[in-house]
Amino acid sequence: MTKLFTSAAAIALIAGSAFAQQDTITIGMQLEPPNLDPTGGAAAAIDEVVYSNIFEGLTRFGPDGSIQPGLASDWSVNDDGTVYTFTLRDGVTFHDGSAMDAEDVIFSLDRARAEDSTNAQKALFAGIESVEAPDPLTVEVTLSEPNGNFPFNMAWGDAVIVAPESIEEAATAPVGTGPFTFTEWVQGDHVTISRNDAYWGEAPALATATFKFISDGNAAFAAMMAGDVDAFPVFPAPELISQFEADPRFTVIEGSTEGETILGMNNALAPLDNVKVRRAISHAINRQDIIDGAMFGYGTPIGTHFAPHNPDYVDLTDMSAHDPEAAKALLAEAGVENLTLRLMLPPPTYARRGGEIIAAQLRDVGIETEISNLEWAQWLEQVFKGKDFDLTIVSHTEPADINIYARPEYYFQYDNADFQALIEDLAVESDPAKRSEMNKTAQRTIAEDYVNGYLFQLAKVGVANAKIEGLWENAPTQANDLTEVRWVD
After folding, report:
1. CATH hierarchy code of domain 57-164
2. Superfamily of domain 259-458 in the CATH hierarchy
3. Tens digits of per-residue pLDDT, 440-476?
């Protein structure tokens, strides 16, 4: 009996040890960040490592794009929308043991909005008039004009809270308040982070996480198959995804990003200044053919410029459904025939492959295209800055950026005074329910005006070991938030 008991205990210890070992993870990333300071660099790869892992802001993005409390447990705004009061969490410390309080918030926001700031998103802070601290756990931010979007602005990785004592080393040895601490960066290979035992919130299940940089799609496939990488949240070779789908060891995680991919139309040039022509082009497009042909089937059809995972999204795809006969009729009503349009394509696959498909679809309704393949620098100079184009294909990856349609000088040159007034009202409205209705009205307005051809939301297609849960399905911001990631049996 004693022998049997001892054997059972040994088995239990072995099983427990094996289970305990399942608290490390290796995450694959295609690009290595140039540095690890999200307040001093524009590369998305920085946030993919540090956002909500090492650094935290007053607010944060939830997996569904909602704005959630971060280092501020709550906040309020005064009646005229110009003063936001944030209540900070008590007992928060930086990874070096120093306390995080209102003075650090003042330092972070003043640094971000300073004239010599290198913050990639200085516009987020442009409306700040002053930042004051009535007490160590309260911060009052006074704006020069109302901005109902301010809590959203504070959720960006560019707005995380840093300390003056450690910011100078943040690029290579970041010190934040998050659930993980920086361990090492072997440049060209990986970054490792470890669980912060002094974290103010719920402790993560993972003890360590390593971000492994693998740029080549075939190498990424081999690393996943060999178990050298446990998850690749944005897998770099969508053409290989089907092999993971057929393998029970893996889970394919398909969601969407903030990238609205559009057929941009120059609204200021004839005949694209005629809504009937723009509508005809929209009805000529078969979104699913583009998603299948250019994106290997990955992408979410959209009918307006808004992310499908956003709580305020309205599905308006039926307004511009594929209908070649309707397209031909609209062109006839507009008195347009023998039309040839210049289609300028930047380098991404979605643009080059998608452009060929769209050209064929337009030809089917009587519109010819002259395709020009441009490098990014050319595209930025000629299309984005010079507005010298008829059609283009590009993905807009900034979150909640429908406000670009309120800028008549923007490259597609849409000029609608009513829409501009709506966006002005949205900017100063702080009531969530009213903001939601305004967002929905904005989506319908640009869809009804057929400003652009709305194609699809860029997919976020990842692969993970089937025993991993908690990875984000969608990407409301570019991040690999590991706070809820764990291994399961």
Report:
1. 3.90.76.10
2. Dipeptide-binding Protein; Domain 3 (3.10.105.10)
3. 999 999 999 999 999 999 999 999 999 999 999 988 8
Amino acid identity of 215?
S
Distances (CA, A) of 29 to 23, 63, 413: 20, 19, 36
The CATH class for the domain spanning 24-28+172-255+460-487 reads alpha beta
| Phi/psi of residue 163, nearest 5 degrees | -115, 145
Buried b (16+ CB within 10 A) or exposed e, 294-319: bbbebbbbbbbbbbbbbebbbebbeb
What is the chain's percent helix, strand, coil content, to nearest 5? 35, 25, 45
**Contact residues for 260 (Cβ-Cβ < 8 A; gap 6+):** 302, 305, 306, 307, 395, 396, 401, 454, 457, 458
274-295 confidence digits (pLDDT tens): 999 999 999 999 999 999 999 9
- Residue whose token pair is 């800055």: 385
Find out whether 60 and 66 touch, Cβ atoms under 8 Å: no
Strands 339-345 and 208-213: unpaired
Neighbours of 101 (CB within 10 A): 20
